[in-house]
Amino acid sequence: MTKFYTRQGDDGLSLMGSKKLSKDDPVFEALGGLDELNSWLAVCRTRVSLAESKRLTKEFKNVSDIILSIQEALFIAQAEIAAIGMGKPARVIISQQKTNELEKKIGDMDSEIPEITKFIISGGSELSASLDYARAIARRAERGARKYDNIKKLRPELVQYLNRLSSILFALARYVNYKLKIKEENPSYK
To answer: Kindly report the CA angle at 129 between 134 and 162, in degrees rounded to 5?
Structure first.
C-alpha cells in the first residue's frame, strides 16, 4: 500500500536530498510555484477537452498539445531546480530550444489574432479565463524562481523559459477567445 504521508515534515522541515530545510526555504517556494502552475494547467487542459467536445477543432487540439508540452517542461524545470537545491548536477535541463519553441508558438498565434491596442480584461470564456489565471500563476512561479536565483544561480535558459510562460499563456487565452469568436473587452477606466 502506498503511504501518502511520512510524518517527517510535521516539524516544519522537509528533506532536499540529504539536507533538512525549512518548508519556507526559497527552493520549496520555487518548486511549489511550478507545481501549482502545473496543477492549474491540468484544469486548463480539461477545459480544452470540454471545448473540444462541444466544437471539435484542430485549433483546440493544438491548444491542448501546447499545454501538455508546457506541463512536461515544468517537470524538467522542477528537476533542474531540485538538483541545484541538493547541490547535484541536473540530469535534465530546460534547453534554449524549449524557449525557442514557445516563442514560435506565440508568434504563430500572434499572426492570427488581432493586434493589441488596449489592455484586455480577462475572461470572455471559461477556458480563456482559466488560461489567464494560469498566466498569473506563471508570473508568481517566476518570481519564486527569481528569488531562488538570488541565492543559488539558475541557468539563464531556465530563467528565460520561465519568463516566456506568462507570454504563451496570455497568447493562448487570446487565441481561444478569438477562435470562439468572443470579442475582447477593454477597461473603461470610468
So the answer is: 20
30-54 pLDDT tens trace: 999 999 999 999 999 998 887 655 6
Alpha carbon distance 90, 81 (integer Å):
8
At 21 the three-state DSSP class reads: strand
What pLDDT, on the 0 to 100 scale, is given for residue 52?
A: 59
Q: How far apart are CA 170 and CA 131, in angstroms?
A: 7
> Could you give the C-alpha distances from 126 to 48, 79, 161, in angstroms and in order?
10, 31, 26
Contacts within 8 Å (CB) and 24+ apart, 145-151: 145/30, 145/33, 145/34, 145/81, 147/26, 147/29, 147/30, 148/26, 148/27, 148/29, 148/30, 148/81, 151/26
User: Phi and psi of 185, rounded to 5°?
Assistant: -105, 145
Q: How far apart are CA 146 and CA 5, in angstroms?
A: 30
- What pLDDT is attached to residue 14? 76
Cell 477593454 found at: 186
